[in-house]
Amino acid sequence: MILAFFSIIILFYALALLFASKIWRKLPELNESGELKSVSILIPFRNEAENLNVLLNSLSQLEYPNDLLQVILVNDHSEDGFNEVIQSFEKNFPFKIKALSLPPQLSGKKSAITAGVKHSNSEIILTSDGDCSFPKDWVQKMHAPFEISHIQLVSGNVVFKSDNYLSRLFQMEFAPLIGVGAVSIELGNPTMANGANLAFRKATFEKLNPYSDNISIPSGDDVFLLQKLKVEHPNGIFYQKEAVVETQAPKDFKSFYRQRKRWAAKWSATSSLIDSLPALAVWAFHLIYITAITYSIITTQFMILLPVVILKIISEGIFISLILKSQGKGFRLDTFAVLQLFYSFYVLIFGLSANFGSYTWKERKYNSNERTGN
Q1: Contact, 249 vs 327, CB < 8 A?
Q2: pTM of the prediction?
Q3: Which residues make Cβ contacts (< 8 Å) with residue 111, sequence separation at least 6?
Q4: Distance CA 90, CA 356 (A)
Q5: Which of 124, 162, 203, 372 is the Cys-Cys partner for 214 at CB 3.0 to 4.6 Å?
Q6: What domains lie within the chain, and their CATH numbers?
């Protein structure tokens, strides 16, 4: 009876992933633009001097009318040599470029984004991070959905730069998050987006003022904007699968831990129980999955559970491989096998740690249990 219950739960999870894979395959593509709109690319950064050279070089190669595109760089109290890097590009940069610095009384990514939006004179805002690089048609692809008048926000695809085994492992772990975010948007209940590849109408941002009640929470600029926008414009969010931005993978397991704890903390910071349900359901599933495997081994009945475990692994492999393919990355069986060994334990640990202790981000320390309005 107990194993039957476990089998049903695992089977339901596997079927849900197969359904998500079907949704991913059928995501609409909008790549043709009519009349081009003015666009501002907004890059908040802190201590990114070592990455700005790659960033600005990539931005300089974008294909978009130079009279309709501007780049706004917002410095969040950096303590490195960022200014020299920016100045070396300013003279020959093909687009208008504006560098701002937050005043002493303001700090954090949300303040930087808000300041950048205020200094923009464009209709569309594109946001990314200081360690990213872009395909030449990035702006065109992220701009295209705004030809539909009710679209207010476009979320794009994000991939880690994977040049070694560890970064490939992190990328494979990251891919399902991108996929779940895309599928949730397509199903009409957006749960997550990534600020490394996000676009929105300036007028909508200014009207919503999305950070007014959560400015004390250091991250979550993307999630809080998404949550507030879906209340006012439930059909106004689009996922652009073909627009892929590359960002730096964590350098090591310590960096990975800090990043994931920060992400888990921002998701737990939402004040809406409904928005938290998908994450709670995933956490509960992995607790049940580990319990099921342990119980079946102890009772020497693992062979009864084996068919649904195999189906679960296959469904995860299909979902991840589809996402990686859209990002121009290959599916590696050895990396997937390693991920299978620790992933459920990782989900449980980070789900719990999100509510306790502190984490460091951009040389600043924050409490994990901060909540909206605190």
Answers
A1: no
A2: 0.91
A3: 76, 102, 211, 215
A4: 44
A5: 372
A6: 2-23+273-360 (no CATH), 27-268 (3.90.550.10)
- Residue 299 to residues 5, 94, 290: CA-CA distances in angstroms? 15, 68, 14
Mean pLDDT, each 10-residue run in order, the chain (374 residues): 92 97 94 86 94 96 96 93 90 94 92 96 97 96 95 97 91 95 94 94 95 79 91 94 95 86 68 69 93 95 95 98 96 96 90 67 58 40
Q: What residue type is 338 in one-letter code? A: V
User: Rounded distance, CA 312 to CA 10, Å?
Assistant: 7
Quick one: CA torsion of 99, 105, 109, 113, rounded to 10 degrees? Answer: -50
Q: Which one, of 134, 144, 157, 161, lies nearest residue 59 by Cα? A: 134
SS (H, E, C) the chain: CHHHHHHHHHHHHHHHHHHHHHHHHCCCCCCCCCCCCCEEEEEEECCCHHHHHHHHHHHHCCCCCCCCEEEEEEECCCCCCHHHHHHHHHCCCCCEEEEEECCCCCCCHHHHHHHHHHHCCCCEEEECCCCEECCCCHHHHHHHHHHCCCCCEEEEEEEEECCCHHHHHHHHHHHHHHHHHHHHHHCCCCCCCCCCCEEEEHHHHHHHCCCCCCCCCCCCHHHHHHHHHHHHCCCCEEEEEEEEEEEECCCCHHHHHHHHHHHHHHHHCCCCHHHHHHHHHHHHHHHHHHHHHHHHHHCCCHHHHHHHHHHHHHHHHHHHHHHHHHCCCCCCHHHHHHHHHHHHHHHHHHHHHCCCCEEEECCEEEECCCCCCC
Cα angle, residue 193 at apex, residues 224 and 207 outer, rounded to 5° = 40
How far out from the chain centre does Cα 318 lie? 20
Tokens 């808000």 sit on residue: 114
293 close to 301: Cβ distance less than 8 angstroms: no
pLDDT tens digits, one per residue of 123-176: 999 999 999 999 999 999 999 999 999 999 999 999 999 889 999 999 999 999
CA distance 344 to 35: 47
Count of Cβ atoms closer than 10 Å to residue 94 Cβ: 13
